[in-house]
Amino acid sequence: MPREDRSQEPHPKGPAGHRPPHDGPATASYDRPETAVPASGQPQTAGRPRITALDVLRGFTLCEILLANIQLIANGGTAVVAQPMGDWDPWLGLPIFSVLFGIGFSLLLDSAANRVPRPRLVLLRRLLALLAIGLVHMLLWPGEILTKYAIVGMLVLLPSTWLPRWAVAGLAAALIPAALIGGGGGPLLIAGLFLLGSALVRYGVIEQIERSARGPLLLGLVFAAGATAALWVQAGVQTGAGMTQPSSIMSSLADLLLAGVYVCALLALLRTPLRPALQAVFAPLGRMALTNYLTATLLVLAAAHILGLPIGQSLTTAYLTAGAILLAQWLFSTLWLRRHRQGPIEWLWRWVTWAHRPPFRRARSR
């Protein structure tokens, strides 16, 4: 889904003189297809490096989402006995995942714009494939998020590619507060976070994401101060009568800001001697995030129903089961990626995306 080479490729004109549909600087492609289909229909090799920080963030977020969802999955979607994150909203990982989805979407669009005459068709196929995967996954886990991602992506992200970057950023700035005021989540928040991720790419922020620890550190302090202020306001309004709505808004705002603190802390730590350890732990999970997200549901259901473990009735059992699943997925991902270019579900998803079978195994070194 790590190489230290951060060199960037310029954005030459694609087939038929097509240029990438954004007015920001060029960025390295996160999706980085090893082969694509130019206008001639022949495979084209692309050697853009992955952005390691995005893999680490995806892997970290995947762990948090499993910890948040494991009791719900084991209980068939009913309420959890105890929140895995204590008093915090247990789904802090979903806002991070939503921003990462918007980032990946725009990076792939950049890549497609350099390789095919109709790059938006590539993205449409990708979203339709994600919708199909989500609908199948919904049979096992009604609370899954992929279907919402696919639908919001088609209704919001894809049309936003015709807009200038300032309009995308403006829409994100409008939708996120509107979602908080309207209830704190749902498709409106997903749309705003998608657009935020897209705007970060189009303004060149992602291009600079691993070049300095100072920026993430300072931004993380700002987020932490904002979260503290939001919780302070929440504590104040809860003492008044009829103040449920402002309290809920402040709580949701604090959760979003705390998610931002997590992201900034990880980005800052990646600029320290801890980088190799963080990369080794989280990057394999992040590179196979879709495969691991889907197989986690199967593994939780197997443990809950086949083995008869009372996962949904015990927070300790939920933590232990989640830890065992993540350890197994990390080991599988690490070994799998030594021989393959991407995870099995990612490979199939890429095949549908580009309408061309990509390489599966890595070339053996002589």
UniProtKB/TrEMBL annotation:
Domain annotation DUF418: ranges: 201-355
Protein name as annotated: DUF418 domain-containing protein
Biased amino acid composition, Basic and acidic residues: 1-12
Keyword annotations: Membrane, Transmembrane, Transmembrane helix
Record Pfam families: DUF418
InterPro entries assigned: Bact_Transport_Assoc, DUF418
Organism field: Nonomuraea purpurea
Location of the region described as Disordered in the Swiss-Prot/TrEMBL record: 1-46
TM segment ranges: 91-109, 121-143, 163-196, 217-237, 249-270, 290-311, 317-337
Top-level taxonomic group: Bacteria
